[in-house]
Design goal:
Blueprint: E1 3-8, H1 12-22, E2 28-34, H2 37-47, E3 51-54, H3 63-73, E4 78-83, H4 88-97, E5 101-104, H5 109-120, H6 128-137, H7 149-159, H8 164-171, H9 175-189, H10 194-203
Parallel strand pairs: 1-2, 1-3, 3-4, 4-5
Amino acid sequence: MTIRVLVVDDHSVVRQGLRMFLGLDAELDVVGEASNGQEALERARQLRPDVVLMDLIMPVMDGITAIAALRREMPDTEVIALTSVLEDEKVIGAVRAGAMGYLLKDTHAEDLCRAIKAAAAGQVQLSPQAAARLLREVKAPDNPETLTDREADVLRLLAKGRSNKEIAQALIIGEKTVKTHVSNILAKLNVPSRTQAALFAVRIGMVDAGA
């Protein structure tokens, strides 16, 4: 099954380049492009992509605003922020809005393809440095609802970077059941993304930051 990707960037040459090398991977299908955040929302509604590659600095609607709107409206679509700047403010803003990952535009093609596949599989990928930086800034929910034991098991594995398939195998449940548990976890913690749920698990000591 191919992963449907929407490419969002205000520079057509960047979109063309991404489309070209992502198209070389048989597991990825670039289903559309958008040149700003507003257009990204409209295209995502039409195309229902699995993963959106989102530039952050764009006219009309910036990437961080678009990520937040997209995650609210289409929680099953994962977003990877793709930008030319590594600024704390942008990283924190993107993750707080609901981005699953944060990559620079000089990332190697193979690494980008790998990140897209990981996001589609439900894997949270945070380097220990990024996790440490984000933990200081991304606030944990004040009064989260209590998770069930099974939800806690799912969150623990999610925070360790396991994919939906790996979590399903470890807990001997179906992948759809894992997705349902993840949706419940996000709702109870009142966070928009798996990344923030994972950071919460680290913050409360469920897993180590380097796990």
